[in-house]
Amino acid sequence: MSWRSARSGIARALGAAKASLAMRCLASVLLYALVIAALLFAVDSVRNSMFDNAFPSMSTVLAHSSALARDDFEELSDTALARCHIVIFDADGGRLYASSRRIARQISPDELSVINDYDQRTFYEVFSGRADGDDGYTILSCTFDAGYMKRIKSSCTLDSDLNILGGSLFQGRRALKKQEFDFIKGIYNTSMSVERYDYRTASGEARTLVLIAPLVSDAAYARVVAEANRVWIFAAPLFLAATAGAGWCMAHQIRRATRPLDRAIGAWRTQRVSLVDREGIPTELVPVYDSFVELMRQVERAHDERQRLITDISHDLKTPLTVIRGYARAFLDDRVPADRRRAYFSAISDKAVDAAEMIDDLFAYAKMEHPEYRPQMKREILGELIRRIGEEADAQVEQSACSLDISLPDHEMAAFVDAQLIGHMLLNLIANACAHNPAGTQILVSLRQQGAYAELSVADDGAGIPPDIAERAFEPFVTENTARTPGGGCGLGLAIARRCAELNGATIAIAERPHAPWRTEILVRIPLAEGPASGLVGSR
Predict the structure, then answer these.
(1) pTM beyond cutoff 0.90
(2) Greater confidence, 415 or 467?
(3) Contact of 480 with 466, CB cutoff 8 Å
(4) CB-hemisphere CA count at 13 Å for 283?
(5) Pairing assessment for the beta strands 453-460 and 442-450 based on DSSP bridges
(6) What's the start-to-end Cα distance of the chain, in Å?
(7) Which of 85, 86, 104, 194 has the most C-beta neighbours closer than 10 Å?
(8) What is the pLDDT of residues 392-423, one digit of tens each?
(9) Percent with pLDDT over 70 in the chain
């Protein structure tokens, strides 16, 4: 892989990471974690420094090991060692450095061998009492072997006056001084400890460092712990500030991610325009913004549909009301001839019926479109239900000078439906066939089984439905009469039929190729209920 392609891949990966809200938030969390870790490290360092300053030890001195290797003793004036005393000897016992002249005079090179070794190559253990049970002390000279097991090199016993009574340790000496005995126990005085560290310089010269440091008492340790704990009190505002900063950063990232949506909502509110800048949208929120755009389109279509609905309702109701108002004014002005009075009354009555039917259709459509509307589903025998509905439609069919036949199968079919909605749907389909076809049109309502469905068909041999109307025939306010002339209807019949079918879990569609001799056929597929039905249903 070439460097150019690798660089391009890295750039794409960085671009994808930058476009991801999750990656931005992850970066904020990581930064917050780093800040918290740095604060914890700083607090821990301050606390350790407080303990080191209060209780300096050989490890505090060895922090300057590089200076010791150069015989550069100026660094030993560190404030962390202010409470200590340090004396350094060369291999011949010569004093090279002493932090205190008084202390330097109290420690001689001859006493170095009785001071415990920091590296524990050689150290002493002191026990009260002797093996014979008398008062005194037992001193062991110990070391650790390669397996870190303690090994006793030599020992001796002392009486209570520090006279040497026996043992291989300190051969040639008759007694120990009080200071030497204290050094063996690691004590310089009642408040100070003492230990030795042997090392070599960068040039290989042997050196011995003696450190006299304060003893750690319970009271002093408790005091330093209390002081060290107060560091957390001073550090707490920093932690709170870091947390607040991280919270602000996360909130800023989220606000930045939702800003394109805010702009889009503002544009829609003021200009009815869906404006979304996809370049500034985080990867995870792209589906949300796409859904918003689609929602805005649906809202726009619904708004246009509402405007069209209002216009169409106004137009459809205005026509019969205009006729009624005109004829009523003619009666008030006494301008109706006596031989035309009955015709005028008949026209007013017919137009009032048309207006009432339009209002009824509009109310039914609005009621069924309400999201809280629930159909009353019951198990019904479809053949019996369709026969009853056909009997209700006989009068309307006869008034239209059309004929109606109903064909039902020999076996029963049961389905869970709302009988009132099925009746409303079928009556609307029959009324639609009567209203948009000439007199003498034959209408056939048939029912047959298609697998797990019952197929209800309403066919007629009338004028047929034009292709441009058929594509949107089930939309509200669509009629064959595009000029919407009087008597054309309000165009809600098929829209109501479609909604009735949907509420019953059925589908409705116009057949593309009706069987001869039918010019129009509307098919409704109703899911059948499980379980057999009994009895026979004839045909009419």
Answers:
(1) no
(2) 415
(3) yes
(4) 12
(5) antiparallel
(6) 82
(7) 194
(8) 999 889 988 999 999 999 899 999 999 999 99
(9) 89
Parallel, antiparallel, or unpaired: how do β-strands 403-407 and 442-450 relate? parallel
Inter-residue contact 37 to 62 (CB < 8 Å): no
Residue 85: strand, helix, or coil: strand
Query: Please, are residues 191 and 38 in contact by the beta-carbon 8 Å criterion?
Result: no
- Report CA torsion sign: 151, 157, 163, 166: negative
Across the beta sheet with 206-214, what order do the strands follow?
95-98, 85-90, 206-214, 192-200, 187-189
- For 291-303, what is each residue's pLDDT tens digit? 877 887 777 777 7
Phi first, then psi: give them for residue 74, nearest 5 degrees. Answer: -65, -30
Q: Locate 214 and state its tokens.
A: 């304060």
Closest CA to 433 of 401, 386, 391: 401
Q: Which of 318, 381, 389 is nearest to 354 (CA)?
A: 318
Lowest mean pLDDT among 267-271, 332-336, 421-425, 462-466: 267-271
Q: Cα(276)–Cα(290) distance, rounded to whole angstroms?
A: 9
Q: What is the residue-wise DSSP string for 342-406?
A: HHHHHHHHHHHHHHHHHHHHHHHHHHHHSTT-----EEEEHHHHHHHHHHHHHHHHHHTT-EEEE
Please give the share of the chain, as a percent, with pLDDT higher than 90.
Answer: 37
Phi and psi, residue 446, nearest 5°: -130, 155
Contacts of 90 (CB under 8 A, 6+ apart): 96, 205, 206, 207, 208
**Is the confidence at residue 490, as pLDDT, over 60?**
no
User: Look-up: residue for tokens 């589906």?
Assistant: 287
Q: Are 506 and 353 in contact (CB under 8 A)?
A: no
Pairing of strands 520-527, 453-460: antiparallel
The per-residue b/e assignment along 193-204, b for 16 or more CB within 10 angstroms, e otherwise, is bbbbbbbeeeee
DSSP bridge pairs for 415:
380
How many Å apart are CA 472 and CA 524, to the nearest integer?
A: 17
Assess contact for 344 and 327: CB atoms under 8 A.
Answer: yes
